[in-house]
């Protein structure tokens, strides 16, 4: 009998949802933690066929049939093992490998990698409490990490010298290089991580397969991760998932934040179902893993531009994974803060309010369509409708896709008769309100010069103005009107820069090294002021 590589079949089980596979042949209804339907393997009128998404198996309490996605395809379609996995591979977008037993050399190699990573973690943990790691320990404690948290997440410190290259001098060099912990230079092996706060990255089985190192001197990038290896693939690994898996099942949802520190603080302060991608770039593999654990997801990102872009990407990626039982939401932490800071300043209650007030996906996508296009013009409305259709077309559940399409058709009919930028619940960094004179002037410009409104629509939407109000006529031509909007935009930008400088100055007084960032803000302030002065003189 041919032997098959379990890595590939495990990959199929990871990528594909058993609810999706079974649901194509058996109508399923969710009751409690399981899905139920009438068994396809014997005649019955009362559903006794149970499917468990989290564990990836089905079981019929009537006839006793049970198994996973592979056995279901084999039995329901009466095909052999290879035909079943070929069909599943096509659905998962995987190329069929040449099947053969995993070589003993590969097994030994992988075991060696695990030993190296675990040993490196032990070294980093000890060094964090050594004199050489004092500044790292001070930093992590200042961020609110207790010794118990440090121990649980096995946080450590990588020094400036080649501690790993020297400690593992007797290990086969090719194996050490393959872990990504060291690299080979002109003068021998050297450590990849230097002077970093080290967060081990665990696979689903709790084994250390990589590391994420955080900068301690304010240099960019803030985080560097182990490069992809035999054991570690960044796009298929979620930070904190091994700790959060059971909590996701209990909470009936997962929470996705941007960074490792945020994920740990959330897990330790009342939100154990929290995870984070390694960097802000979510992938289809990340969403597939989360949906297999639970299809209810709250994406919680910073309210800045980068956070909103990350949320828009998450919205795009999650569309094919939506089912009628899915509850996907988007929460934003505004005011230049992140979840870690919210937990410190307002506690779990403040963070819980942000999560509870999260915007449903159907509303978030609608907000993107309104904010991204000027729906005051036929062209803008056409672009926005195409954008919405492009996103909803990705929903694979036909009935759910139809419901989304009907929902947006109704909204388009009710809201796009006259141009208005819907501002409530649009996640963004809060902008200062404008006085009545400025408001009336802006409304006059928008109503009389729609071409200007279209050019500066994104900025105008941040002012939280109701453009349906009636205002008196103002003696202002188009050139003066555009000059006014540009000047107002520069003034708001200048106000934002001063707010950022104030926040950075507070951090500087608390001992954080942000002098370079303050210098950068000062340069931007000078540039903005210069532009305003030039505009006034024209």
Summarize the structure.
This protein is an alpha+beta fold and 538 residues long. The protein is built from 22 helices and 17 strands.
Walk me through the structure:
It is a single chain. This protein starts with 5 loop residues before the first helix and ends with a helix. The strands form four sheets. A six-stranded mixed sheet has the order 12-14-13-15-16-17, with helices on both faces. A five-stranded antiparallel sheet has the order 1-2-3-4-5. With 538 residues, it is α+β, with helices and mostly antiparallel strands. It has 22 helices and 17 strands. β4 (57-60) and β5 form a beta hairpin. The longest helix is centred in the C-terminal third of the chain and has 32 residues, at 478-509. It has helices at 6-15, 18-23, 69-77, 81-92, 104-128, 134-142, 147-152, 163-167, 173-178, 241-251, 260-268, 284-293, 305-318, 339-356, 361-372, 378-392, 398-415, 436-448, 450-455, 457-461, 478-509, 515-537, and strands at 29-31, 34-37, 49-52, 57-60, 66-67, 156-158, 182-185, 188-191, 196-202, 208-215, 223-225, 238-239, 254-256, 274-277, 296-302, 327-333, 359-360. α3 crosses α4 (81-92) and α21 packs antiparallel against α22. Residues 418-432 have low confidence and may be disordered.
